């Protein structure tokens, strides 16, 4: 029997099986025979030279990878505040083209209104009671007027009241009513200012004085005198206001030019224009403020203008400033018309 060696010189499994099979025909212990034959076959097979085991190359030492720094967490970006939405400006309404205004027809000129009745200014009764004792009635012949106590022993009145007389009758009020009649002497006159100085022992309280100028317009005043033939020591009283103060150039009783009074002007004669209703017989009487100060001496009223129309409410008085300027000379017996 031929045995076929397999790869590497060993018995193939076929040969081994065949060997076993050939032995099955005898009484030989099969198991022992098989073991012997396998041993022989193994011994006969050439020994395979072991190949050297390749030396393993040392593993490369791993290089340390630098630890990366943690990436900085970016700061949160501030959310921008929402920008307020600008409202669109309203479109201005177109300017209406002005329409030409129709020229109104001329207003017919109304006839002059009747003079307004002046509103009475209440005068304290005690003020009148004290003032009346210093306001006297002056008469010369058939004419008469008024005057007032300017100082002890002296009465002042208008030049046109004494009418060129050297002596006059003076009626002086008494506290209980009635009058005391005395004769006064005219010492001097001033036709420019319409003044006359009368010396008489009157015994009445002298009245205080006050200088007024144009800025005092509107000052409430009272005017006292013996108009409407009043007598018995009770002069008539009228109320009003100062309208203005002017400078009169020339004789105050004549038509002469006037100019505004500026308060420090000494040219001409100071004239107080007021709206109290002075009447004939009140000439020479005092014009007083409500404190009892004389601001002027009544001499007349405006009756006609240059156009011939009646003027209502313009009464005139020589201002205290012009009286005081010449009073000392008058009292000394000097006529002051030329001053």
List keywords for this structure.
5 helices; Thrombin, subunit H; 6-stranded antiparallel beta barrel; alpha+beta; 2 domains; 13 strands; 339 residues; disordered N terminus
Task: Give a quick precis of the structure.
This protein has 339 residues and is of the alpha+beta class. It has 5 helices and 13 strands. It has 2 domains: 34 residues; 207 residues, Thrombin, subunit H (Beta Barrel).
Secondary-structure map:
Blueprint: H1 13-22, H2 30-44, H3 125-131, E1 135-140, E2 143-151, E3 154-157, H4 159-162, E4 167-173, E5 179-190, E6 195-199, E7 220-225, E8 236-248, E9 258-260, E10 269-274, E11 286-289, E12 294-301, E13 315-319, H5 320-331
Antiparallel strand pairs: 1-2, 1-4, 2-3, 3-6, 4-5, 5-6, 7-8, 7-11, 8-9, 8-10, 10-13, 11-12, 12-13
Structural description of this entry:
The chain is α+β, with helices and mostly antiparallel strands and 339 residues long. The protein folds into 2 domains: 7-40; 125-331, Thrombin, subunit H (Beta Barrel). It has 5 helices and 13 strands. The protein has helices at residues 13-22, 30-44, 125-131, 159-162, 320-331, and strands spanning 135-140, 143-151, 154-157, 167-173, 179-190, 195-199, 220-225, 236-248, 258-260, 269-274, 286-289, 294-301, 315-319. The strands form 2 sheets. It has a 6-stranded antiparallel beta barrel. The chain has a 6-stranded antiparallel barrel with strand order 7-8-10-13-12-11. It starts with 12 loop residues before the first helix and ends in an 8-residue tail after the last helix.
């Amino acid at each position: 029997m031929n045995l076929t060696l397999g790869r590497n010189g060993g018995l193939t499994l076929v040969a081994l099986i065949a060997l076993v099979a050939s032995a099955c025909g005898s009484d030989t212990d099969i198991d022992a025979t098989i073991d012997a034959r396998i041993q022989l076959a193994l011994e006969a097979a050439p020994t395979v030279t072991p190949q050297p085991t390749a030396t393993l190359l040392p593993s490369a030492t791993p290089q340390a990878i630098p630890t990366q720094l943690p990436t900085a967490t970016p700061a949160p970006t501030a959310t921008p505040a929402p920008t307020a939405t600008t409202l669109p400006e309203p479109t201005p309404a177109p300017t209406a083209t002005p329409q030409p205004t129709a020229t109104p027809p001329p207003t017919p000129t109304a006839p002059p209104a009747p003079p307004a009745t002046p509103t009475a200014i209440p005068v304290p009764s005690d003020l009148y009671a004290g003032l009346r004792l210093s306001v006297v009635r002056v008469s010369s012949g058939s004419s008469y007027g008024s005057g007032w106590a300017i100082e002890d022993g002296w009465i002042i009145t208008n030049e046109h009241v004494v009418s060129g007389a050297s002596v006059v009758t003076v009626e002086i009020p008494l506290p209980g009513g009635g009058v005391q009649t005395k004769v006064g002497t005219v010492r001097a006159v001033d036709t420019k200012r319409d003044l006359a100085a009368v010396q008489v022992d009157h015994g009445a309280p002298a009245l205080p004085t006050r200088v007024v100028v144009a800025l005092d317009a509107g000052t409430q005043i009272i005017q006292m005198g013996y108009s409407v033939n009043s007598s018995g020591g009770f002069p008539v009283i009228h109320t009003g206001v100062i309208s203005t103060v002017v400078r009169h150039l020339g004789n105050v009783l004549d038509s002469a030019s006037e100019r505004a009074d500026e308060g420090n002007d000494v040219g001409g004669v100071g004239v107080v224009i007021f709206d109290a209703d002075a009447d004939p017989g009140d000439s020479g009487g005092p014009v007083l403020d409500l404190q009892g100060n004389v601001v002027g001496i009544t001499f007349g009223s405006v009756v006609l203008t240059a156009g011939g129309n009646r003027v209502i409410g313009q009464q005139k008085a020589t201002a205290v400033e012009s009286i005081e300027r010449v009073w000392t000379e008058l009292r000394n017996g000097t006529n002051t018309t030329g001053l």
